């Protein structure tokens, strides 16, 4: 349990935690607005990663430059998914709601596998990997540049999102709908527009996370499964519907994941299991999560 | 499910009888090994779906973790056999018992969660179990365990009822799987007619209202998960003895849990026939795509399953049975709200 | 001995005092109205009595037994049943099946449950709708199903939560008749309502809550003229005017 190991794990945990948080904020927003868990969330991330990958391969656009396109693309995809799949099941029984998004996730995974095969792909020579050998060294700590960039982007995105939700009219309307849809309707806020917006933001955030991950994480059709799982845990931990909760919980989950081998001597192959175990513990003791309202 | 306002079916029992006859006769008609394999898998998956249906369809508790029970069944009997020479039949009972205990232990805290939360928790559980088994060398870890072939005096692979292995003719596997499916289906039908069934359906509809009618909700949910676990575990043992090989990848993966649910939903969630219909459609389809499209077949599977499930969720949550009902109701029969027979007005309280 | 004794029941949610030391009793076979303006704490008290909330302090006794904190399921077996204000019919079960769920509280036999259900369907006038799915009923029908369902548990005390809301005046008349018929069967009834004119004709005894406290109780005629009650519903100035005119 050397100090350097622990510090390294701490840093790694915070960095990946930031990305988890970014992935999860869309999920929590969507749930807060319409009480639907998007079981296809991880697969949207997978699509974002593929988008960044193909952009780099086909038009030689590094994720550092292609990310705005991915964000917009996924945001639009979110809106499309809302109108095609979600809107019809807003009032459907829970079984239908769960399986509509679950099925969508399977479908997207199948599509990716059909189009691009199951092989793992990585971007050759990502830009961030080239600068300074791709790593920042602080003393005996090694910080991957792509990972750092991802975390920084995520943090900025959170900041922007916070500003948007709390300082703009649209953002406040969004909060109103999440809080009390009926009353929001009475003061003239169109719930459906807000729902679509929620999906757009969710898609956009996942797009950003995907583009950032593409610089250092191998992409395959099933890459979304694990990230998706992690995002459910983050959202449940932080509290369904709470944006600050997603941030807090994301960081926490990242830390637990990375620190459990370093601090608890858990074999690395168990580090995800530890997170899942933590999730179960939290959700049983405090179902509404750390900052949740539901 | 109560029938109301439809053209009368040919006696339901006749339909079931013909299904049983077809099922019994099928392997004698389709004699190829491939067909037999599809048949056995169909029966096993149908059992998984039927078992899932008890918890997910009747009680409305969506679980994505049933593969854990499948794995418990497969691993318990296999480990006991390979390490201690215990007959797979006893191993089957032990597996079912262990699955029952785990189901109760797991259900007790988790049933406090509702809907989405419960579903996600079952995923978490499945992943934890899968990770543990993958890293547990005593049960074979990621490599799994191979079941040694039973051999006769000449050293040739042979059949043995005692060791639950049939290497010369695989037919007995088919009939054993059929018996298991029949048992699971029968139990489901009995449940639906009984207090347990009514209570589970009430819980599925509205838990709080059920409480207000005296339903001890937790107790009945535990009954549902217990039954689900037992049948799933027995199927696991049968599967292990059929393949003569188990590993975490094939027995405990999330996809298996999802498949069980998908099959039940495709056919008609919450009904007795639903899982059977779903399996009859899905398993051959999946095997055929695999046969014709090879590796790419897996992608087609996902596309098909995923697409089907989305369509069902959007348009007909009752699955194929629901679609069938719609056809029977139109165009000549009456809408549901009309009373079946006139009633004298003195029965109205005034 | 009173069938139900509510003894200084207090319910506090964090800083909010929803019920403040409320006490009253219900005799066997009595119809008691629990009224008060919106926000008086009637539903909270209701949920405490029916086992959906645990009172912060105070006691509830049913047939002489202390049932404070008992969960709803247990109370039903002891003979205390309730309906819900926003009807919670089981939507994909038929009317008969809905009532059978209630009947199973007293029997394990499906045939017996069906028999009990059919009897109650006749009693509540739902016999012709027995095979209709719960989701396909009108509001008034759903309320009858709720009533029949609760009666199927063979209660000694029935708590009705705002059963009149959402009904037309004609339907309200039928509801009142039904409640009287329930009393004829020897079942005591507690009605929670926030409309005075509905409760007064049918109650033997009325308890009035306002801002979490009991402010009056007695026979309907007395309570209707009680100045505190009038003030609670119509405001302080009306009460003063009434007293000036008296």
What is the helix fraction of residues of chain B, given as a range?
55-70%
Radius of gyration of chain A over alpha carbons?
19 Å
What's the rounded overall pLDDT mean of chain B? 85
Number of strands of chain A: 2
Helix content of chain A: over 70%
Estimate the mean pLDDT confidence of chain A: 87
Strand residue percentage of chain A? under 5%
Task: State which percent range the strand residues of chain B make up.
Answer: under 5%
Shape of chain B: globular
Rg measurement of chain B, Å: 22 Å
Q: Distance between the terminal alpha carbons of chain B, to the nearest Å?
A: 32 Å
Q: What string, H for helix and E for strand, traces the elements of chain A in order?
A: HHHHHEEHHHHHHH
Greatest chain-chain interface?
A-B, 44 and 46 residues
In which order are the strands of the major sheet of chain A placed? 1-2
Along the chain, the helix and strand elements of chain B come as: HHHHHEEEHHHHEHHHHH
Structural class given helices, strands, pairing of chain A? Answer: mainly alpha
What is the count of β-strands of chain B?
4
Descriptors:
heterotrimer; A: 294 residues; mainly alpha; two-stranded antiparallel sheet; 74% helix; B: mainly alpha
Question: Any overview of this molecule?
Answer:
The complex is a heterotrimer of chains A (294), B (350) and C (246). Chain A has 294 residues and is an all-alpha fold. Helices cover 74% and strands 3% of the residues of chain A. Chain A has twelve helices and two strands, in the order αααααββααααααα. Chain A has helices at residues 3-34, 41-58, 63-86, 94-116, 127-130, 145-167, 169-179, 181-186, 191-214, 223-238, 243-264, 271-285, and strands spanning 135-138, 141-144. In chain A, β1 and β2 (141-144) form a beta hairpin. By secondary structure, chain B is mainly alpha-helical. Chain B has a domain at 30-253. Chain B starts with 11 loop residues before the first helix and ends in a 21-residue tail after the last helix. Chain C has two domains: 1-79 and 156-246, P-loop containing nucleotide triphosphate hydrolases (Rossmann fold, 3-Layer(aba) Sandwich); 86-154, no CATH class. Helix content of chain C is 39%, strand content 24%. Chain C is globular and about 60 Å long. The A-B interface holds A 37, 85, 88-89, 92-100, 102-111, 113-114, 118, 221, 225, 229, 232-233, 236, 267, 269-270, 272-273, 276-277, 279-280, 283-284, 287 and B 56, 60, 62, 109-110, 112-113, 115-117, 119-121, 123-125, 127-128, 131-132, 134-135, 254, 258, 261, 265, 269, 295-296, 298-310, 312-314, 317.
